[in-house]
Design brief:
It comes from Lottia gigantea. One of its GO terms (biological process) is regulation of transcription by RNA polymerase II. The protein contains six helices and 14 strands. With about 240 residues, the protein is α+β, with helices and mostly antiparallel strands. It has one domain: SH3 type barrels. The protein starts with a strand and ends in an 18-residue tail after the last helix.
Length: about 240
């Protein structure tokens, strides 16, 4: 179910920023810009999805999502090459349009993800979520409200953040410069000030994306609804 007030309209399409759903008996939320693990089919390896658009089409009465999918190089048709970095992933060239009822069963939360550089765990009670760091931190849901068993399990779940290569380099550089800082609060503050970021998740890793790839298997999935993609081109000049 799409949640929150509409953030825009275009023809028969009404756009939203988030949706909520029930998975394994628990209510969850995903918003635009968030990353999550997906299992599209038994034959296709686990990948990372990124919500880029959410909308409802009044003509078809469908609730739809536009996704960018990311795969490890070894899980692409060309495979891993010597020039791929150890923390690098590849994006599927074309975005994928899926109905929300088709997307939800693919979402995976109990994935053990070990690829990527570990992100510092922010142990402060009110980490920096203001200024230019807010968009980055908002990609990782705040899981620290309360100390019940459910929240603790969420803190331990694998999470991943995908950055551009320049952002990834700034993050690694900031951590390198602060290797000798023992004060966790000071280190968290300085990392954010130097262009990096931290997270309230205890098991989050950062990877970067430099390139795209094509896959005929993914292009031919029957559940794709690319014909329902919104046309958001500007007025011709």
């Amino acid at each position: 179910q799409l949640t929150g007030p509409p953030c825009g309209r275009h023809g028969s399409q009404t756009f939203y920023k988030a949706f909520k759903f029930i998975l394994d008996g628990k209510e969850n939320n995903l918003a635009i810009g968030e990353f999550f693990f997906m299992k599209i089919s038994k034959e296709i390896p686990v990948c990372i999805g990124e919500i880029q658009l959410l909308w409802e089409d009044s003509n078809s009465n469908y609730q739809l999502s536009s996704l960018r999918l990311y795969f490890l190089p070894e899980n692409t048709p060309e495979g891993r090459d010597e020039f791929h970095g150890e923390d690098e992933i590849l994006a599927l060239h074309h975005k994928m349009i899926l109905k929300l009822p088709d997307l939800i069963p693919m979402i995976q939360y109990n994935i053990e993800w070990t690829v990527g550089y570990p992100v510092p765990y922010d142990t402060t009670s009110n980490g920096d979520t203001t200024g230019e760091n807010k968009p980055i931190l908002s990609m990782i849901r705040d899981l620290t409200t309360g100390e019940n068993e459910s929240n603790i399990k969420k803190l331990e779940q694998s999470q991943v953040v995908i950055r551009s290569y320049p952002q990834y380099c700034r993050f690694r550089t900031a951590l390198k410069r602060l290797e000798g800082v023992q004060d966790k609060w000071l280190k968290h503050t300085l990392v954010c000030a130097l262009g990096g970021f931290s997270t309230k998740s205890r098991n989050c890793r950062v990877v970067y994306c430099l390139d795209t790839f094509y896959s005929s298997d993914l292009d031919e999935l029957e559940i794709r609804c690319d014909h329902l993609a919104p046309s958001l081109k500007g007025r011709p000049r």
